[in-house]
Predict the 3D structure of the following.
Amino acid sequence: MMKRFVTKAAILLFAAAAISAAASSSCSVNNKARVKSEKKAPMCGAYTDPRDPSAEEIALLLHNVADKSGLVLTPLSVATQVVAGVNYKFRCSFEDSVRKTSGCCQAVIYKDLSGKATLSGVTIEECEKDFPVEIAGAKGTLRGLLRLPQNLEGGKCDMVIVCHGLTSHKNTASLSLVVDSLQARGFASVRFDFNGHGQSDGDLIDMTVSSEVEDAKCILSYVESLPFVGSTGYVGHSQGGIVGGLVAPIVGTKRIKCIALMAPGALIPFATRAGRFGTTEFDPANPPDTIWWRKGKPLGKAYVLDGQKIEVYEEAAKYEGPACIIHGSADKTVPLNYGEGYAKVMKDCEMHVLEGFDHSFTQDRTVPAHIVADFMERKMHRQ
């Protein structure tokens, strides 16, 4: 069970310890826990939208708060306001190893026209569950959500990338429960809408499995840029599963330590070669410009041609790390044998067959969520 560590006494002690002022100093650390598509200049009289802090702004925060209070701070965003100088409003997660507390806080620092910085105040806030993030993907901006563990142990934690299926999105019930289960075990996670899906840029008709593989590489690079991330794992459902089985052997176990594939969509190459995908039958040698996955969900000719080239099991077999396959025996969208194909070829793979479960695990979505979190905990050596 998750616990809230911040008490009223700790709030008072933290605020008292943090109140100090000093000049800013240099710092090479960069943080990208919250990213916006554009970095906005300070606005006179009003705060800008929250954005990713620069290295100089992080140095300002650490020198005026962390260095004086002994707290481990992870800056999440900053907003600025011009008032005969500049106010910097930082939002951070913090860990206080002395008082054994952690949580989220807001720190306001005022820098006058001469450059002198003064801490205006620190307030404890309720931690948001998710922080919006934006990164460049294969076909424009990818929009996602970052989830941090309640207590960052030593300022570091392991991260899991969580990816959705075809014509789906980052906030499905199954993936939300996976993220909750991971957080309860001390993992951070990030989940994005792939190109052409949800809130991300691009059109569905231009999306291919290969473009999602490129998106996944971009997401991995973003995760690796975060200063608090240790090892990284990957979870994918349906088409997000086939993407994981393709990207993991490309980048190797040093970058993706383990993968969990939920009802992985390995039928895609077989169905596109056979000329039947979704609700459309077609000549596989000459596919039409548009096929329909389901009503209102058009896919392009490029999707079919790309899918036909994928050697799904041959590529997955190249991955050297631990893998976990979770598949329902009653899955009619991607029958069980496609998930079992991964277990037959991967070197270190455990197979979980959920009797009577469908493609979206609607019988009990907590079951696959707990399997995923338990697997990640075991394979990423969390205590």
About this structure: The CA atoms of residues 20 and 362 lie 53 Å apart. The chain is about 30% helix and 30% strand.
